[in-house]
What we know:
Layout: H1 2-12, H2 15-21, H3 30-34, H4 47-50, E1 61-70, E2 73-87, E3 90-100, E4 104-117, E5 120-133, E6 137-151, E7 156-163, E8 181-191, E9 194-203, E10 209-219, E11 222-229, E12 234-243, E13 246-255, E14 259-270
Protein name: PorV/PorQ family protein
Signal peptide: 1-19
Keywords: Signal
Amino acid sequence: MKHLIFLSFLLLIQTSVMAQISPITQVHGARAQAMGNMRVHGKDAWSYFNNPGGLAYLEQAQISTGFDHRYGLKELSTLDLTGSFPTEHGVLALGVSRFGGKLFNQQSLGIAFANKLGIVAIGGKAEWFQTQMEGFGTGNNLILSLGGIAELSPEFSIGASFFNLNRAKLSQATEERLPTGISMGINYQPVPQLQLQAEVEKDIEVKPVVKLGIEYVLRDWVLLRTGINSNPSRMFFGLGIKLDQLSFDYAYGQNQPLGTTHHISLGLKLGK
């Protein structure tokens, strides 16, 4: 009965909502979630998942892990782990993610590389992606993604992230393709304590989503965040705690028709 309820849920919810929970299109990391599902201007270890171009700004090795729990269903939960390592030639990152439960699940394993070229940071990612559905078999594919950020001034930057550029299929046995899309955004920091972001995200099969987000530094070690999305309308709140090499982030999301989401991330910087 539980499996039947879950399958019914997947069939009833809209395509746009499916795009939010797919590990390809969902935004990873509690900081990005709290600011309104922002993808482009992270500039942290979570850039591996959201915009590989942001990895180029990392000056220390970082390891981060996160857990997403959506709409009260453990079958819609995601577990992530990523590590980023600056090198002489750029920043190398590895990541692994698992979404779903026993009945339906998707997992990915990949590698990314990013570097700066003047005011532009650009990065690419290749990941192996697997979909398993009980009774329907398993599909495996290679997914290619690309992203970048251009700093036009110390206060203002623009960026974009493209996911599944090669339009990989769900499996070799079907013509159905995995989500493909683009996010474009701006970041404005009028004072060091305040960061304002706006993005437009477009999956080629669903209507565009407009996102607005704010991060405010209340203390050197406490950060407050909030954001909103359109299509569907959603609100987000969260906070971040920074303690030397450690960081903790939490985000709460509200989707009126479906319920709440909770996101937790932990980060560790290695070396000085």
